[in-house]
Amino acid sequence: MRAAQDEIMKIAVVGGGASGVFAALVAAHTAKKNRKNVQIRIYESNSRLLKTILVTGNGRCNLSNAEISAAHYFGAVDLFSSVYACFDRPAALSFFESLGLLTVTDSAGRIYPMSMKASSVVDILLRGLEKNGIEIVADTRITSMKKEKHGYLLNDAFYADKVIFAAGGKVGGSGNPSAAVYDLLKAFGVKCTYLQPALTAFMISDFTKSLKGIRTAGALTLSSERSEIAKMSGEIQYTEYGISGIPAMQLSSFAARANAKQLFLTADSLPEMKEEDFVRRIYSMKKSDPQMPMQLFLTGILPKPLGVFFLKESGASQECQLRHLTDALVSDLLKNCKHKRYAVKGLRGFENAQVTSGGIAGSEITERLELKKLPGVFVCGELIDVDGDCGGYNLQWAWSSGAVAGIHSVLEI
Ligand SMILES: Cc1cc2nc3c(=O)[nH]c(=O)nc-3n(C[C@H](O)[C@H](O)[C@H](O)COP(=O)(O)OP(=O)(O)OC[C@H]3O[C@@H](n4cnc5c(N)ncnc54)[C@H](O)[C@@H]3O)c2cc1C
Asked: Which of 46, 50, 52, 397 to mutate to test the pocket of ligand 1 (most atoms within 8 A of CB)?
């Protein structure tokens, strides 16, 4: 397994996404620092590296967050914590700076490249690969691995002393090449947890298309039949199939891991207005303008189609005026505006998700990100059962885990 001091150690990185490229770069730096002779090669099934980076953060690449903690992650959270302790956000940002990329932080703590262009991140990382002599083998999907006396043979063709799997998850629509890696590792007895789409939208049962296109500030609560699971605030987006927007996407990560037969989303469309204020306001408007159409009253505080929908759901006609108000109708309107419950039909599929929930189980992996069953084989990034919130958390995991896998692929114990 060990290459002699003066021999060249061959490191194969499977997957040229965020974590794989970072693993290769950090491995090259570690080798240089420790005077180790390495040959690093990235095998990538696409024709180009770092394709996903270009679409991150709406083309701006939200590459980290000012507030990183285990509370923002799901799955193998202990593994996240030990990896992050070894290579944290400041380490990642200073590594980027050494490559030539500077960053900025917005008022919500999201960190972007200073250029606000994802393409800058790609260009700088590619330049780093070139400068460090890292070889790229594109258009090559790794589908098999054999254990040799010293090292591993990939696709019956490529020998490596060490292998870093950085094949990502199941999201995106490019033929799911990481499935081959999950299968390949499972054949060695490596356990993988159930894969589900996360950071995605909710599909709602019998959802009305009349709400499509509405974007409004609100709060969403995810619950099962028995209890509340989590609550998030932000811009709620209504689509033709259900509910999206950042709070919905954040809640989808909880939904992916919730073991419940039926889930519900409850929307508070008036998060800034207390219930008693709503009641006071509607009665005082009734007093001052009894002829006012109820629908217009709602338009004064909500996007019009939402008000129209809530009126219909409350059983009132669109012509109904404030003088027709009854206590029962006020109570129904209040319920719709502040506690409208939608039955969840499911989550949007992997093709619309930003991240995979689930992956190689934390119990299979050492703190060095080496597979316990396959010495010399490392894993990083979304392939592992770790996923984070929206806001730069997933890319930070890609940098941290890629770096840790890269360091330890070079440094032997
Ligand atoms: C639309 C979108 C927006 C996002 N926005 C953000 C954001 O703003 N901030 C954030 O933190 N996260 C964001 N994410 C999530 C983030 O992009 C991922 O978590 C991150 O890219 C994962 O990095 P990775 O290296 O593990 O996997 P990937 O980036 O998916 O890279 C894996 C690579 O491995 C290759 N590969 C797979 N199987 C094989 C094989 N068998 N042989 C050879 N090559 C293989 C793939 O082609 C791919 O290039 C977003 C994701 C999406 C889809």
From this structure: 52
Q: How far apart are CA 235 and CA 248, in angstroms?
A: 9
Angle subtended at Cα 167 by Cα 21 and Cα 397, rounded to the nearest 5 degrees? 65
Minimum-distance ligand 1 atom for the alpha carbon of 50: 49
Dist CA 177 CA 165 (whole Å):
12
Coil/strand/helix, residue 145: strand
Reported as a pLDDT band with limits 50, 70 and 90, residue 315 is: very high
- Nearest atom in ligand 1 to the alpha carbon of residue 398 is 23
Pick from 41, 49, 56, 61 the residue to mutate for probing ligand 1's pocket: most ligand atoms within 8 Å of its CB.
Answer: 56
CA of 387 to the centre of ligand 1 (A): 12
Give the domain extent around 205: 201-348
Residue nearest to atom 3 of ligand 1 (CA): 56
Q: Are residues 236 and 363 in the same domain?
A: no
Shortest-distance atom of ligand 1 to CA 56: 5
Asked if the model's pLDDT at residue 6 lies above 60, the reply is no
Are 320 and 377 found together in one domain? no
C-alpha of residue 206 to centroid of ligand 1, in Å: 33
Q: pLDDT for 329-351, tens place per residue?
A: 999 999 999 999 999 999 998 98
Task: Point out the domain boundary residue: 300, 329, 348.
Answer: 348
Q: Is the dihedral of CA 298, 242, 210, 173 positive or negative?
A: positive
**pLDDT tens string 68-103:** 999 999 999 999 999 999 999 999 999 999 999 999
State the distance from the centre of ligand 1 to the C-alpha of 207, rounded, in angstroms.
31
Atom of ligand 1 nearest to the CA of 387: 19
Closest CA relative to residue 194, chosen from 361, 19, 364: 361
**Domain check: are 295 and 397 in the same one?**
no
For 141-155, write each residue's pLDDT tens digit: 999 999 999 999 999
Structure pTM? 0.93
